[in-house]
Amino acid sequence: MDAPRSDRNPTEVRGQIGEANFPLHEIARETARLWRRHHLDYDQTKHVVEQARRSLGLQAPRERRRTVDRLDRHEVERLIEHAYRHSAPYGLMVKTLFYTGARVSEFVNLRVEDLHLALDPPQVYIAHAKGGSDGYVPILPGLAQELRTHLAGRTRGYLFESNRQDKYTPRAVQRLVKTAAGRAGIEKQVTPHRLRASVATILLDAGMPLDQVQKFLRHKRITTTQIYAQTSLRGVGENYLKAFERR
Question: Is the pTM of this model over 0.70?
């Protein structure tokens, strides 16, 4: 979501912030001085570090899970359905958010001028993108028709406007999605980012090549997209079991 900050404290180690302001550079200097005094070689210093960790009871942190939880197709359909039950504009907002795979910061800045609904397939230009990864994404013809109806001839301004005729805030969209998920009885924590992960893994499960999903999500690095590919393997496992457990 938000870009990693570049002004991180130099004492941060493996994601843990040095809140106690430990002078790690001083500790490293003193350690090097001690090792030099005793003429320790590489293997000996490695042994000392292992012994010190053991004495302090330190253990390596668990590797962070590199997969992203997502909603399945039926949960997405329920989410959109209950958003529509609240109101047609809210339903269309959630539907557009999901089918474009837009980040919430991009979604709230979508303008009518970004729509290219006469193309085949219809497309939306995603601007104000994270890391400058602007680009076009396709949308379903049915969604394009709903957007035409929603605009009612309007040709300028934000695609979705609040009662004040201004764009929605990201927080407002987050609340909208959370409320719709609650009404739909979805127990998972549902956020705009989880919708983005969901459309990615659904596309991968349906057979879309990884490089095309990368283009759709506008990721600069395919390694970022591969996180969603790892998630989609859950679907492979589920379908595998279903195939062999049928009687």
Answer: no
CA distance 57 to 62: 15
Establish whether 219 is a catalytic residue: yes
**What are the DSSP calls for 88-106, one per residue?**
HHHHHHHHHHHHHT--HHH
Unique residue bearing structure tokens 């957007």 = 147
Q: Which of 111, 116, 128, 130 is catalytic?
A: 130
116 counts as catalytic: no
Closest by alpha carbon to 71, among 178, 186, 227?
186
pLDDT tens by residue, 56-88: 888 876 654 545 578 999 999 999 999 999 999
Stated as kind and residue range, the H or E segment containing 166 is none
Set 70, 78, 103, 218: catalytic member:
103
Residue 45 belongs to some domain of the structure? yes
Residue-wise pLDDT for 195-204, tens only, equals 999 999 899 8
104 and 182 co-located in one domain: yes
Q: Which domain holds residue 39?
A: 9-64
pLDDT more than 90, % of the chain: 53
What is the Cα–Cα distance from 151 to 146, expressed in whole angstroms? 9
Number of domains in the chain: 2
84 CB contacts (<8 Å, ≥6 apart)?
90, 91, 92, 95
Q: Is 130 a catalytic residue?
A: yes
Cβ neighbours of 111 (radius 10 Å): 14
Q: What is the pLDDT of residues 94-110, one digit of tens each?
A: 999 999 999 999 999 99
Q: What is the pLDDT of residue 6?
A: 39
